[in-house]
Amino acid sequence: QVQLEESGGELVQAGASLRLSCAASGRTFDRYHMGWFRQAPGKNREFVAVTNPSGSTVYYRDSVKGRFTISRDNAENTVYLQMTNLEPEDTAVYYCVADMTPPATWYRWGPKLQYQYWGQGTQVTVSS
Q1: What is the pLDDT of residue 15?
Q2: DSSP string of 44-100?
């Protein structure tokens, strides 16, 4: 069993930076691929980023490449999403996710798959 708790979301202006954190409970954190999804009002949930257990493999959706960085600290059971140069289109609830599915599958199939563990989400609002 893995429990996930996100933090770090807030209201910012376009061009600002934010770092989201996701703290995980459980002793098996370093066995899971960890990632982020987001859902904007009235839109479908979408894949944002994923990293493998060691942090050596990462994937991003095209619209955030070069602006977002996913990382993890297995000693602290935490995964991060560093977001820079935020745009109003990044406004969404951001969800932390843990699953055994390989990162390439997250990237290819995104929300079409079922993922094992989800956090409650943290709101990111970017004003123009």
Answers
A1: 98
A2: --EEEEEE-TTS--EEE-GGGTTTEEEEEETTTTEEEEEE-S--GGG-EEEEEEEES
